[in-house]
Specification:
The mean pLDDT is about 95. A hairpin with a 2-residue loop joins strand 3 and strand 4. The longest helix has 28 residues. Strands 2-5-1-6-7 form a five-stranded parallel sheet, sandwiched between helices. Strands 3-4 form a two-stranded antiparallel sheet. By secondary structure, it is α/β, with parallel strands linked by helices.
Length: about 190
């Protein structure tokens, strides 16, 4: 299992888009999570105030889980086993069909229990991460820092990686880094 991870606003989605353009299938843990986090389960876990028009109020839920560690753990204990099960199921099918793939797991190091053979971290410096997150999600600096601090520090993730994809410059540089990663995979997998 080849995993792409990093931290919030480090550029994982862009790397996955580039990999997809080059023939890789992407198994997306966030997409799986969105499918699994349904109004019924959220109402049971956190109450009806996180449901609006029969949909999960994702903004309110995010505010809760990024500001309350106990609530975040409650959600993680519910959702991570379900995500893991779905990822392992999807990966098994892709491997049987001999399809090239990567698994995008933003919280790989935080959630554990995956049998990855290669872990690539998409890295950018923390200050750039903060700037990107503020711009992308229209957050205050304090909100952006709070979300970043709810994950393992990007420098620590970089140190644990089998491969680092540097995203501290422009898109052309990131394309080069992604190509370098694909060459690594071709040579080692």
């Amino acid at each position: 299992m080849i995993v792409i991870t990093g931290s919030i606003a480090s550029g994982k989605s862009t790397v996955c888009k580039l990999l997809k353009e080059n023939g890789y299938t992407i198994v997306d843990a966030d997409k799986i999570a969105r499918e699994l986090i349904n109004p019924k389960s959220i109402e049971k876990l956190f109450g009806a105030k996180y449901i609006q028009n029969n949909e999960v109020d994702r903004k309110a839920l995010a505010k809760l889980i990024f500001s309350d560690k106990a609530q975040r753990e409650k959600l993680n204990q519910y959702i991570h086993p379900l995500i893991r099960e779905k990822i392992h199921h999807d990966v098994k099918k892709l491997e049987q069909a001999q399809i090239k793939y990567v698994v995008d797991i933003p919280l790989y190091f935080e959630s554990g229990h995956y049998d990855a053979t290669t872990v690539a971290v998409v890295y950018c410096p923390r200050e750039l991460q903060i700037e990107r997150l503020i711009k992308r999600d229209d957050l205050s600096r304090e909100e952006a820092i709070l979300r970043i601090e709810n994950q393992i520090d990007i420098k620590n993730k970089k140190a644990m990686a089998d491969f680092v994809i540097d995203n501290s410059q422009d898109l052309e540089h990131l394309k080069h880094e992604t190509k370098r990663f694909m060459e690594f995979l071709d040579a080692n997998i």
